[in-house]
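Take one record.
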Amino acid sequence: MILMMGSFLIFIISYLRERRKLINGFFFNVFLIFFFFEIIGILVQFEQHSIFSLMLLFIAVLLLFVLLFGVFGLIFFLFWNSRVVRKKESVSLANLLTFILASGLSVWWIFVIVVPSNALPKPIELILGIIPIITFYFLCGFFNYLSAAFVYQFPKPKYNQDFLVVLGSGLIDGDRVSPLLASRIDKAIEFYKKQVSATEKKAKLIFSGGQGSDEKISEGLAMANYARSKGISEDQFWIEDQSKTTYENMLFSKKLLSAAGMQDSQGLFFTNNYHVFRASLFAKAAGLCAQGVGAKTAFYFLPNALIREYIAIVMLRKKRHLFIVGLLAVAIIARIVLYYISKN
C-alpha cells in the first residue's frame, strides 16, 4: 500500500508541475504495477472466499494466456490492421508500419522460438538473443509514451481561452480538407461556440498550415474555407500559411499572436488524439502557452498512427537511444569475442 500510494503521489506531483513530460507515463505505469500487485495481495488474503478465489484464478489464467499466445495475437492483429489500412488509405511507408512490425515479429518468432538454438551458428544465436532485450527496452518506452499521452488528455480545458490553433495536415486533391483534418476544425469550432455560450468570450481561431509541394493552396487557407462553410466569419480567424512542420505551426502561430499584442495570452491547439502529446512538446519548445485538445480518430488508423508517433518521439531523443542500443551491441560483441577465445 505504501509503495502504491507513494508512486501515485510522485506521479501527481510530476503531472501537476508539467503535463508535457514523458516521465509522467513512467510514473503512472509504476503506480499501475504496484496497484496490480496490491489487488493480487487482497485477493490472496481473501482466497478462502469462493468469489475471490475465482477472481484470482481468472487473473492467473489471463496472464498465462497472454504469455503463451500474446505474441501470436499481436502478430495476427497487426497483419489484420495493415490489411484494413491498405484498403482504406493510400499505400505509403507510414501506413505500412503495422505490416513491417508484424513481419519483424514473425521473423523473430521463427528464429528464436521455432528454430532450435543448436541449429544456428553461435554468433547468430548470441545476436538473436539480444533482440528481445532491445525489443523490451523500446516496448517499455512505447508503453510509457502511451500512458503519458493518455493521462495528458485527462483535464477538460476551461472556457477562458484567448486563442485556438488548428494544426494542418494533407489536403485532398490539393485544395480540400480531409476527414482527419475536418475533425480537428470541427472540434475547435465546437469549443469556440461553447466558450462564447458559457462566457461570451471570443477566442481567435488560427488555422495553421503551409502549402505542400503537391497542394494547390495552403492548408491554412483550405481550413479557413472549410470554417467559412461552417458559419465562421473572417473576423473570427487568422490564417498562418508558412509552416511546414508541427514545430513551425506553434512558432509561427506565436509570432502572429505577438504581432497582435497577444504574446502573454493563453490558448489551446487542436489536432487528432494520437498526435496531441507530441504536438504539446513542440508547443513547449516554441514557447507557445497552449495545451492540446485531441479530436477522435478512426480506430483502424490508430495503430499505425501511434507507432509513427512513438518513432518520432524516439527520434527526438535519438542520441540517448543510440547510446543505450550501442552499449547492448558492445555487450554482444564482447560475448562473441569471449566465446571464440574460450574455444581456442
User: Anything to note?
Assistant: The longest strand covers residues 267-272. The chain is about 65% helix and 10% strand. The mean pLDDT is 86.
